[in-house]
């Protein structure tokens, strides 16, 4: 299985901050990397697919980059509704695997 | 627009079989454009893919669960189902159904709201 490692596991930030979350794959996954946002008590919601493509309806302050083994999710200006847990997921190989999550909390 | 909804018992006894159904609306489960999958999340923990099925019946399972998992599709009811046998406390989780497009990059979208299944006597 391909292991996905996110860092940090949690972070505290203020409204308006620029936030960066990284995801590293245990082997090259090309650009088969997706990002999800999960709020408490809700199902995950797709934000970014294929490393850098913004899902329809997702605000443009979210962006993704990377290829191979190293990927980044950036929130350019953190909004109150962005406080949540973020997961990366590789879709290069079966089984698809997720990172352990990054919880973004209010400072 | 596709919508998915899980249903099934919220409590299962140890060693018994967990059975859940996902009802698809807003589209046909017989579409060649999608796979239909199950993903679980133990309380307070991360996400684990269980398996997926194509409308033709072709299945893909997580090797870690393969010996206990069966996923099937009922095209007449626009539903697909999960059976997980010989459950233990470690199988307590929120179980989500989700669709994924049949071609790369095969992301999961949309997801059902999830259903909590507790394994306890």
**What general form of chain B does the structure show?**
globular
Q: Helicity range of the residues of chain B?
A: under 10%
DSSP strand (E) fraction of chain B? over 45%
Average of the residue pLDDT scores of chain A:
97
Low-pLDDT runs of chain B:
none
Biggest beta sheet summary of chain A: 7 strands, mixed
Which key features would you list for this structure?
heterodimer, A: 107 residues, seven-stranded mixed beta sheet, four-stranded antiparallel beta sheet, B: 121 residues, mainly beta
Could you please describe the fold and organization of this structure?
The complex is a heterodimer of chains A (107) and B (121). Chain A has no helices and eleven strands. By secondary structure, chain A is mostly beta strands. In chain A, strands 2, 4, 5, 6, 9, 10 and 11 form a seven-stranded mixed beta sheet that branches. In chain A, β7 and β8 (70-75) form a beta hairpin. Chain A is globular and about 35 Å long. The mean pLDDT of chain A is 97. With 121 residues, chain B is mostly beta strands. Chain B has no helices and eleven strands. The radius of gyration of chain B is 14 Å and the shape is globular. The relative contact order of chain B is 0.32. Classes of the chains: A mainly beta (107), B mainly beta (121). Chain A binds chain B through residues 1, 31-34, 36, 42-46, 49-50, 55, 87, 89, 91, 94-101, and chain B through 46-49, 60, 62-64, 96, 98, 100, 104-114.
């Amino acid at each position: 299985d391909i292991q996905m490692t996110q860092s940090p596991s949690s972070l505290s930030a203020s409204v308006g901050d620029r936030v960066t979350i990284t995801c590293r794959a245990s082997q090259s996954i090309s650009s088969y990397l997706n990002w999800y946002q999960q709020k408490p008590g809700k199902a995950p919601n797709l934000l970014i697919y294929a490393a850098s493509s913004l899902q329809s309806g997702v605000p443009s302050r979210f962006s993704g980059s990377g290829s191979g083994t190293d990927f980044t999710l950036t929130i350019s200006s953190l909004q109150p509704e962005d406080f949540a847990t973020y997961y990366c997921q590789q879709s290069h190989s079966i089984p698809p695997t997720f990172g352990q999550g990054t919880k973004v909390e209010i400072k | 627009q596709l919508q998915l909804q899980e249903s099934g018992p919220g409590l299962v006894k140890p060693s018994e079989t967990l059975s859940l159904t996902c009802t698809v609306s807003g589209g046909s489960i017989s579409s060649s454009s999608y796979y239909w999958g199950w993903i679980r999340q133990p309380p307070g923990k991360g996400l684990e893919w269980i398996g997926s099925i194509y409308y033709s019946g072709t299945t893909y399972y997580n090797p870690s669960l393969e010996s206990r998992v069966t996923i099937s599709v009922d095209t007449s009811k626009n539903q697909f189902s999960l059976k997980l046998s010989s459950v233990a406390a470690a199988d307590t989780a929120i179980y989500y159904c989700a669709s994924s497009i049949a071609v790369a990059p095969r992301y999961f979208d949309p997801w059902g709201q999830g259903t909590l299944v507790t394994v306890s006597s």
